[in-house]
Design brief:
With about 90 residues, this protein is mainly α. It has 4 helices and 2 strands; from the N terminus they run H-H-H-H-E-E. The longest helix has 12 residues.
């Protein structure tokens, strides 16, 4: 599974301590796009290219997207441990 919901996008950004501007810059999407997405709820309704860019940028920073039932009751996120954490 990958990035599917608005809540996952917000959770991933919070876990990284990033601003909306940092997400937009890193993913190569516009700041208004990130703001619009985060103001919604439920499944992300965006172009596949935009979704792929956001997901790749967040995964590159260690974000894992969890499916319902992994460790939560719904979709969520977790950070991969870094070498410093092991």
């Amino acid at each position: 599974m990958g990035l599917k919901t608005v809540e996952q996008l917000r959770q991933a950004r919070a876990a990284l301590g990033w601003t909306q501007a940092k997400v937009a810059e890193t993913a190569g999407v516009s700041l208004p796009t990130v703001k619009r997405l985060e103001n919604g709820s439920g499944n992300l309704a965006i172009r596949l290219e935009t979704l792929s860019s956001l997901e790749a940028a967040l995964k590159a920073q260690g974000v894992q997207f969890l499916e319902s039932g992994d460790v939560a009751t719904g979709p969520g996120v977790a950070l991969k441990p870094t070498e410093a954490d092991t």
